[in-house]
Amino acid sequence: MTISIEELQLAARNHGMPLEALRYPVTPIGLHYLLIHFDVPEPSPDWRLEVAGSVSRPLSLSLDDLRSRPYVRMPVTMECAGNGRARLEPHVVSQPWLAEAVGTGEWGGTPLRGLLEEVEPLEEAVEVVFSGLDRGIDGDVEQAYERSLPLADALGGDALLAYELNGEPLPRQHGFPLRLVVPGWYGMASVKWLARIEISERPFEGYQQTHAYRLRRDEDDEGVPLDRIHPRALMIPPGIPEFLSRRRIVDAGEHVLEGRAWSGFGPVASVEVSFDGGASWRPAELEPPAGRWAWVGWRVGWRAEPGEHELSCRARDEAGNEQPLEPTWNVGGYVNNAVQRIPVTVR
């Protein structure tokens, strides 16, 4: 695998969560994963959120207006749809995530549902389009970053118009002054630097909906837009790392392995851990969940014998979805939730 200068530029601008930060139930702001498609925009001092389109009562709201509305604070695990892309073969050229494009924040703001009910979508309305202030060129198309949700999902889910993260004002890199947070969906749905909400009578055909963030088997496949997060478990790497390879060095003896697991399709039902490269699996103990949309902690004991080992973990959700042992290649390098594999030398 060769990483290009262009991919290194992306990796320098964006960052993942160090896997040792899995120890925190809520990810510290500076350790939460971050993906910025274009540039961090600078909102104008008179910024307002415009809510318009196929509605009876359009709105124009200041940040103070939004703060005066009903308030919700909830822990939400957010993951990039491209998490694991760098491990696919053949190589997919884009942001080279390994497994670290995830984080759990306590997002604070006002529910999207209440705002949509207030503007009264017309009977013909089918989708809600969210437009950010960030602007650039992708696929030779100049565009603001925009994504849509089916109106039924926008009204029926727990989507949040967030202006706080972990009890602090929303940081600029995370979408100040306002962003959308769509619990259970991959991060591309949670539009940052939100400027406009448009209720539409036809399916949205913007680039990030009809070309990017679609699961396609090959270039001729039209594919389907990505939505919910597939189940994944990650382990806090045990022991200490070798600097360059990050291979783990562990002392022989009794250890407790810990990590987190999540799914956008429902609660995590089980986590299993392998100490022998997937030849056999042992159930892990799950902690009580911190919230409906937050990851759950897990732990399992391991008696480490001297030698070379490969540790793995996999999650299964209550809807019956389970992590695969091997990844499935696709054009954009999306949804690689194959089990984590950690080489370990026990001394």
Radius of gyration: 21 Å
Query: What characterizes the major β-sheet?
Result: 6 strands, mixed
CATH homolog superfamily of the largest domain: Oxidoreductase, molybdopterin-binding domain
Residue share in helices?
under 10%
CATH C-level name of the largest domain: Alpha Beta
Tally of DSSP β-strands:
22
**Whole-number tally of structural domains:** 2
- Residue stretches low in confidence (pLDDT < 50, at least 5 long) are none
Separation of termini? Answer: 30 Å
The name CATH uses for the topology of the largest domain is Sulfite Oxidase, Chain A, domain 2
* CA-based shape: globular
**Spatial order of the strands forming the largest sheet:** 14-15-22-21-17-18
Which structural category do the helix and sheet elements fall into? mainly beta
**Average residue-wise pLDDT:** 97
Order of helical and strand elements: HEEHEEHEEHEEEEHEEEEEEEEEEEE
Structure, described:
The structure is a single chain. The protein is built from five helices and 22 strands. With 347 residues, it is mainly β. It folds into two domains: 5-225, Sulfite Oxidase, Chain A, domain 2, CATH 3.90.420; 232-346, Immunoglobulin-like (Sandwich). The longest helix is centred in the N-terminal third of the chain and has 9 residues, at 5-13.
